[in-house]
Amino acid sequence: MNGSLAFIFGLPLAVVVLFFALSAYERRRGIATGPGFFQRNGLAVGLYLVLAVGFWAFFIILLPQLAMVDMSFRPKLPPAQMGGPKDLYTLENYRYFLFGSTTSTAEWNWLHIKAFFLTIGVSILITLINFAICYPLAFHMAQSASAARLRVLLLLLILPYWVNEILRAFAFRVLLSSGGIINQLLMGSGLTHEPIDFLGADVGLYMGLSYAYLLMMIFPLYNAIESLDRNQVEAARDLGAPWWHIHAFIVLPHAKPGIASGCTLVFMLTAGALAAPLVLGGPRTLWFTPIVYDRFYQAFNWPQGAAYAFILLVSCILFVLVVLKAFRLSLGEITR
Amino acid sequence: MAAAVELEGVNVTFGDFVAVRDANLTIEPGEFFSFLGPSGCGKTTLLRTISGFIEPTRGQVKIGGQDMKGIGPNKRPTALIFQNLALFPMMTVAENIGYGLRVRGVPRHERDEKVKTLLIQVALSEHGHKKVSELSGGQKQRVAIARALAVEPSVLLLDEPLSALDLKLRQHMRAELRAIQKRVGITFIYITHDQGEALTMSDRIAVMNAGVIEQVGDGRAVYAEPRTPFVASFVGENNRIRGRVSAVEDGFATLDTPLGALKGRNPVALSVGQEALLFVRPEVLRLHANGGTSGFAGETLDVAYEGSVSHITLRVKTGQKVTASVGGGVPLPAAGEELHLGFTPEDGLLLALPEGHGR
Amino acid sequence: MIPGPFQRVMFALYTVIFFLYLLGPLVVMGVSAFNTPQYPQVWPIDGLTLDWFAALFADQDMMTGLKMSLWIGLLVVCISVPIGLAGAIIMTQIQPRVRSLYYLVVVSPVLTPGIIIGISTVVFWRQFTGQTGTRFLYDGVVLTVLGQASFISAYCMLIILARLQRFDRSQEEAALDLGASYPQVFRHILLPFLKPALASAAVLAFLSSFENYNTTTFAILSDKTLTTVLAGRVRQGSTPAISALAVVIVAVTVIGAIAFEIYKRRADAAAARRQRAALEAEEAELAGTPTPAMG
Ligand SMILES: Nc1ncnc2c1ncn2[C@@H]1O[C@H](COP(=O)(O)OP(=O)(O)OP(=O)(O)O)[C@@H](O)[C@H]1O
Ligand SMILES: [Mg+2]
């Protein structure tokens, strides 16, 4: 117990001390010049900077993540036994993800595994689809729209995002429900006689997910393409390059950071989405986040929930790394 | 009275790069002192060392006789006018000028009085309430000066303050700056790469090159008595001819050059056999002159008529170009014409070749 | 560039479909807020009514949740903007060799799914407050604010950093040179320069906090915010009162956006006026109107 407290306060302290030691070393070696940190900012402001960033980086970002990872490797115990002799590190929670309860007869925990891979797969698919949907409009806005039209387009794009995620998902439910306007139209035109169960078939969920994060794709794309000199496209056109050539060899390479940034954002948001599956998912819907949620608030098995959350986190990190690698970019280039 | 600013063996290095090398200098109180040198020679660095933004790597900066080591820019009795002025855009003109007093805790009414006086002095009394962005270039300039003077510094440092201005305005501001300095009587240290500016305004000038102060003296001295080839060619126009010293006689020396033997003054005591450079200003070269003077011939390439003077460019035997400036009333040659150019030994100047200069 | 007629038609068609997709669901929902049936319905319009708005405002849970959301939003602004500011300043001062590591740490919340942030916040603070005897801090509001602050501070930092990178260091030096102390430089020069970015950061922080669900639903514990109440309502079944809420939110933000636009245009006009004045002064000076001599 006290060991972990010592860690919680010791780690930030050690890192801060390390930073100042590094700075003192650089100053001594003449690598860094100019006033030192506290001289440059003054004592009060300097303390504010160190404390604010230290609290943020450690108590809000790093330590909670570490605590979650730590918990995911511990058994589920009643509070009285925590830290006791039974509180040993274990892989039980990860074993459960793969093989299910020890009493179950099935070989694998298919339900959770399927939900996980479906979530990842569908998220990748939705990311690609959103890219395809957004690219033409982003290109148009960045390269050929007049200023007045651009203002209108931007306004129209932002408008839906003033309402929150749950309401956006709800709008799809209104739209796609069996008595909804789409089914009315389909039946009215005689295409079907029975209302189609969009929501039960998860069509609603996937549409809602794609819809929910469209903006996260279009703005990074737009920003990236906008910085491309219009003359460059014109010149290529004058030289007789076919349109696909211009996009493949001029626009897309230039927009790489924007594409990467849009894709990682959309993937992360989709894979981590909780509102849309809750609102648009049916009882048989497979999605990973509601399962994580249930570990906490249905099964009351926090260590298991932590393990599931960690699995999701790792896959998101992997996705970001793969994208960075594929596009040969650094993290700084995609988070602007 | 202690010197306003003293530099004793000041060196400033950035990593391996030496920006200022071994600067030794004494600037007197009430002096208008200029640093003149090409872009990147370390002028700004030296000024920032005096104002306290850079600590010298070696050596000492003294202001008013006091060592400034460890004293930050906000504690030094200097005020700096930045190359880009650095006026505060979120404040009005009056607030800008009063800022130094505000941070010193001068009471409001006293501060307002002072700002009002300064506004009148820099002819901006109508503009005190305006934002800085509403002012013209010249007005901004004057705000910056008033802001610096408000804190009554003992030394005012100016980093190319006129470089952003239009030519006409620049000339007007020269006179104005000089007048302000005379009136307030404090030391001005002025940085410029414009020799016209340095020569017209300064009491003394330090000519800098590649981090080294090459020569210190008044305008006449650096123009007429340069002590290094760099100063001779950087301050004013100069023709340069290379050769070897063949004879020395009290104060004069003769140089063997591809253009013949040429005689000039020998202030740095060159000895026979040494390689040297002869400098002759365009305005001392005479056309068709003969007898008793050193001289050489050349082919006229170009004649630029400017009214009161004309600049004639010639090509001499070695292929080098030489310029001569002649006053009005002198008959001008036509292009292609062969000319003989002459000068008296008093007008020629011999200087040692800089080290490592193998051209 | 001159696209052919076929391309133009295709692009127009695409744009229409795109915006149908984007705005259609909202329009449908908006219309259902004014239609009488119990279940959100667009067509046929059985009759116009404002009852659903009345039902919305009569919903005690929603109103409590709304108050809670506003309160949390305010707290998040008060925490995230100062943290984001400090984060941005540190970013410009930190030693180059550790800068990318620092960047990775503080930007990571932006790329972390919200539920994971919520979970880890709860896990850590439950443990921490238990061990330090500060159980009173294990509270829905505190945890939600902390959880949201992790990524909202990063948004704020990115906004402030963008402006900070355009800061002219010589302003700072000029103030120092005039005798200002370091804290004075910070208050008088840096903060006013960053003011627009701080304002945008505050607005963004509030909106992100107000509409957050994923992190909040874990961190809020037994309390309720507007979004968690809403999620519960939506799961129970659809009622047009929910559509009414969307209409209210859109209306409020559109009015806000319009007000902001008007304010911005005025500011732009004032700046343009100043620019013109400066140009005129410049011309007058160059035309040789002698500026009054000094002394
Ligand atoms: N902080 C620094 N780190 C590394 N090198 C620097 C630094 N500041 C200046 N230098 C270098 O020192 C040299 C002198 O710079 P300085 O600004 O003093 O020149 P300057 O004479 O003022 O030139 P200019 O007329 O262009 O203003 C330049 O080569 C510059 O690149
Ligand atoms: Mg300079």
TrEMBL record, chain A:
Pfam families: BPD_transp_1. Its main location: membrane. The chain crosses the membrane at residues 6-25, 45-67, 115-138, 150-171, 203-222, 259-280, 306-327. The keyword Zinc does not apply. It is a multi-pass membrane protein. Belongs to the binding-protein-dependent transport system permease family. CysTW subfamily. This is Spermidine/putrescine transport system permease protein. It comes from Ancylobacter polymorphus.
From TrEMBL, chain B:
Keywords: ATP-binding, Nucleotide-binding, Transport. The keyword Methyltransferase does not apply. InterPro entries: AAA+_ATPase (IPR003593), ABC_SmlMolc_Importer (IPR050093), ABC_transporter-like_ATP-bd (IPR003439), ABC_transporter-like_CS (IPR017871), Mo/tungstate-bd_C_term_dom (IPR008995), P-loop_NTPase (IPR027417), Transp-assoc_OB_typ2 (IPR013611). Signal peptide: none annotated. It comes from the Bacteria. Residues 5-235 form the ABC transporter domain. GO terms for molecular function: ATP binding. Belongs to the ABC transporter superfamily. This is Spermidine/putrescine transport system ATP-binding protein. It comes from Ancylobacter polymorphus.
UniProtKB/TrEMBL annotation, chain C:
It is a multi-pass membrane protein. Gene3D superfamilies: MetI-like (1.10.3720.10). The keyword Hydrolase does not apply. It is found in: Cell membrane. Residues 66-260 form the ABC transmembrane type-1 domain. The keyword Cell membrane applies. It comes from the Bacteria. CDD domains: TM_PBP2. Keywords: Cell membrane, Membrane, Transmembrane, Transmembrane helix, Transport. The chain crosses the membrane at residues 12-34, 70-90, 102-125, 145-164, 185-207, 241-263. Belongs to the binding-protein-dependent transport system permease family. CysTW subfamily. This is Spermidine/putrescine transport system permease protein. It comes from Ancylobacter polymorphus.
